[in-house]
């Protein structure tokens, strides 16, 4: 079974990086602060995580800072998985 | 008074931080009516200069049109200056109804509701018609006012890649469990000048049982062969459910906006949209002038035809000169520079050449996508356009970017 960070990274690349963007995105690449993911489209990532991992991420925790890298996202998801 | 020195310092520091980041918006004063040729005081306190304006939303050149000004005067004389009321108390005149009816006929929609601005229309429409069982699926580059309106609504929302219909289809499949789906897009995107492929979008909407809302602020009056908008251009007038648009751009340029579309949705906006319920009516002179604008552009396509010819002349001239412009057919022409400082420096040099244009960079456009956005107008004459191209050629030569593609410019200046 694929590790969560690989699943999330694959989703981020598929969802937010265009083929002609010429961007290298890794698990510690800044997503929000670099402009790859903006605060409006961040919601798509939240919907994906909630459906995929059957969790509910409260708005006060699904913040741009908490979503800024795949590593941070995985930490947040694991916390809510209990 | 609680605005202590310490409090003042707090806000001063925030302003200083904006300046530090190079994001501070400078003041520019127009000392003439709006038009192709204007007098400008910039920077503040500097002598006034006569310059050509290539950054207004004055697409049809109606901002200072004599017939529009006359209609505003007549509206002022016959219906007064202001309504001192929101629409539903005592702020609706017969001319508000007349303008709504004329806009519905012009756009090919069932009904229309006026708002103080399109920003207000976009802020109010979603919350009025949707609830927690619904989903909004929006293009990622929609206008900020739509983003704000969506965030104010209790419906879930999701986004799709800019104008990517395959991605939209995936999102429509994902949200089939919702009561209703509303796709949201701009008809013409204000920063890139892209035309949303509404024919493909409306076909998907039919297949996946979704409604479509289009913000036509940068399209109404001139896109499509008779200027009805993007839905006319793609021959889907009867397939779009809601249009929001403004009287502050091509349609006269003063202020005011509207939501137009299916009558039940418009009625819900009239009952529930908060910016409609809690903000003043459009002022009578502006309503009267807006009626004149709709009459003028319904009677003749002369102005949108001239704008189309001007756009073609400018785009061809810029490409021939070797400037890197985003391909397209709308009067919004981004001159791509990628680097924020380069965009700023070049726009300042363009001003010295008598051309008023502005550089745009992050966060207004995505990082690494800095550009000077040029907007054509039906008020421009051939010599204005040629002077603008000549200035871009001269300034482009100074910075060594003529003939360079994206990679060439980024290699030279970075992103």
Task: Give me a quick take on this structure.
The complex is a heterodimer of chains A (82) and B (415). Chain A is built from 3 helices and no strands. By secondary structure, chain A is an all-alpha fold.
Structural account:
Chain A has 82 residues and is mainly α. In chain A, 45% of the residues lie in helices and 0% in strands. The two termini of chain A are 19 Å apart. Chain B has 415 residues and is α/β, with parallel strands linked by helices. Chain B folds into 2 domains: 5-60 and 302-413, Aspartate Aminotransferase, domain 1, CATH 3.90.1150; 66-299, Aspartate Aminotransferase, domain 2. Chain B has helices at residues 5-20, 66-79, 87-90, 94-107, 118-129, 144-151, 165-174, 198-207, 230-233, 263-272, 274-277, 284-299, 302-321, 340-352, 382-398, 406-413; strands spanning 29-30, 37-41, 48-53, 111-115, 135-139, 156-160, 181-186, 210-215, 242-246, 257-261, 332-338, 355-356, 358-360, 370-375. The model of chain B has no long low-confidence stretch (mean pLDDT 97). The interface between A and B is medium-sized, with 10 and 15 residues.
Itemize the secondary structure elements and their pairings.
The complex is a heterodimer of chains A (82) and B (415).
Chain A lengths: L3 H13 L25 H12 L16 H12 L1
Chain B lengths: L4 H16 L8 E2 L6 E5 L6 E6 L12 H14 L7 H4 L3 H14 L3 E5 L2 H12 L5 E5 L4 H8 L4 E5 L4 H10 L6 E6 L11 H10 L2 E6 L14 H4 L8 E5 L10 E5 L1 H10 L1 H4 L6 H16 L2 H20 L10 E7 L1 H13 L2 E2 L1 E3 L9 E6 L6 H17 L7 H8 L2
Parallel strand pairs in B: 3-12, 5-6, 5-7, 7-8, 8-9
Antiparallel strand pairs in B: 1-2, 2-3, 4-10, 9-10, 11-14, 13-14
Quaternary state reads heterodimer
Q: How far apart are the first and last residues' alpha carbons of chain A, in Å? A: 19 Å
Average pLDDT over all residues of chain B? 97
> How helix-rich are the residues of chain A, as a percent range?
40-55%
Overall mean confidence score, pLDDT of chain A: 90
Helix count from the secondary structure assignment of chain B: 16
Largest interface by Cβ-Cβ < 8 Å: A-B, 10 and 15 residues
Number of helices of chain A: 3
Q: Architecture of chain A in CATH? A: Orthogonal Bundle
**Alpha-beta content class of chain A:** mainly alpha
User: The biggest beta sheet of chain B, please?
Assistant: 7 strands, mixed
Low-confidence stretches of chain A: none
